[in-house]
């Protein structure tokens, strides 16, 4: 990440601007909020059809078996071989695909989004493009990906699904992972001035790379520039974090985009993975940088999704494990970063924004409680919540019912295009998928209620 040498004192010692409540009044409000956000009411699922209930129960039951989740990619490959492309699509479309994907074309996506809107949920569209080291396929592929991203901007803005539309963006869909790794190596030796990257977006030569790398980097920045220009004042673009061996380069580019386009509002956001040991310092650096460079900061706060690969890579390279050693440390990291952001938002809500992207109920309750204490509006735009489509609906629907801004990460595309995305998401979120017993129990309660009523 862009390392800022001046760690601003004010972001480590932020004043709390709490409401002047008596201790009894504050306690009553806190108890009421905790009861409201207990996420134990099966009525949250009354908006689902009987088919949707049965589908979710079946899929979540299958996801409770670690062997199925861990080997889902191989299992799907075998199924595709035996059933053929058409048969495999017929199997997946009404099941896994329908649970986690919005649709293939704009008509199907619109139907899904309109239903979501009626439930008080907002879409955060995601083009399911997957690419890692060794998978680069040339400039044409990256240009095609850019066109897909621009279409995502258009759909997010032109359809009245919600106010404040959002979308997700992977920089490695537009810029080769190999170059991102090279940039990360250069940044470790000598941090780059953001202005160099901003000027490179406008076509100026970038130092430290060879001729072919410069040419590709400038093309990648121009692609990102086009997407940012298309989205400003229309759609908020949330840039995904990826692996630690390329994240510093991704953040450098994202911060340059912020400096160029986030002058009057947070249109470009960066993602912070709180399972990383240095996530808190990276967030504080970003806050200092945004203040010193005069741009608005948008933050997507996640726990993280690449733990197994990160640890295996660290062991293979003989490096220190970048991931917190235990779940409790990751929780502390997440909650500490959340508190920092909510404090600065309470001071300057027009300059800072956050999406609390988590399936963890305790973190959601903590965020809601601090919002109440700091006087942050539930739906004022500065703070929102996010979960994946098809998962954690008891949390999403309850939050929406209580008036909070809630987004669902919504992939779309054909079965073939979304399959690699679904496999990776399943494996990255295996602990969440295997631990959704509460959601299954609530689904069963709602199903039993309907069966009793039908007798």
Number of helices: 19
Mean pLDDT: 87
Main sheet summary: 8 strands, parallel, barrel
Q: Which structural category fits the helices and strands? A: alpha/beta
Which shape, going by the Cα principal axes?
globular
Topology, number of strands? 8
Number of domains: 1
| Ends apart, CA distance between termini | 60 Å
Helix content: 55-70%
Organism: Seriola lalandi dorsalis
InterPro entries: FAD-linked_oxidoreductase-like (IPR029041), Proline_DH_dom (IPR002872), Proline_oxidase (IPR015659)
Family: Belongs to the proline oxidase family.
Keywords: FAD, Flavoprotein, Oxidoreductase, Proline metabolism
Q: Please, could you describe this protein's structure?
A:
Helices cover 58% and strands 9% of the residues. By secondary structure, it is of the alpha/beta class. It has one domain (44-454): TIM Barrel. The longest helix is centred in the N-terminal third of the chain and has 29 residues, at 72-100. The protein has an 8-stranded parallel beta barrel, surrounded by 7 helices. Helix 3 (50-63) packs antiparallel against helix 19, helix 7 (139-158) packs parallel to helix 10 and helix 9 crosses helix 11. Mean pLDDT is 87; it is low at 1-7 and 16-20. The N and C termini lie far apart (60 Å).
